[in-house]
Design brief:
Blueprint: E1 2-3, H1 18-27, H2 31-37, E2 42-45, E3 59-66, E4 69-76, E5 92-93, H3 103-117, H4 124-131, H5 133-142
Parallel strand pairs: 1-2, 2-3
Antiparallel strand pairs: 3-4, 4-5
Helix pairs in contact: 3-4, 3-5
The structure holds iron/sulfur cluster.
Length: about 150
Amino acid sequence: MIACPGGDYCALANARSIPIAQSITERYQDLDDLHDLGPIDLHISGCINSCGHHHSGHIGILGVDKDGKEWYQVSIGGSDGSDLGGPAVAGKVVGPSFAAAEVPDVIEALLETYRELRHSKESFIACAQRVGHDAFRDAANEVRQLTAKPVYAS
Ligand code: SF4
């Protein structure tokens, strides 16, 4: 995980990064669970200056400001060009931004979707690239509790 200093320490921030990183870390403490999930680049930036390189994360989180409040845009499928993720590419946003309290559930939904859809020993990013965006997008949006679910054209 990479998280920029965000709103706790950076005057340019739209949102805090560190509490989001903490809440995800607290949810994933079990070493066997982490081993099962394998290598995943999760990057968090507190604003579009992108110091946390959210765009190149297999999962990216970007803090945005709406009406003076903190919101978080989540993307999947990014790569920094390393062997694991393949050629560098920006992740694709899964939908409208989420409230801070929703973000850990969104991450869990993405990871559980990976566990359901992966082939043997397939990494998260390889699975996301093979399966495509929609299954992960739908899982992320399904766990919204505080924000409206988007409507997609069929
Ligand atoms: S991404 Fe934005 S909030 Fe984070 S350190 Fe850079 S300028 Fe500050």
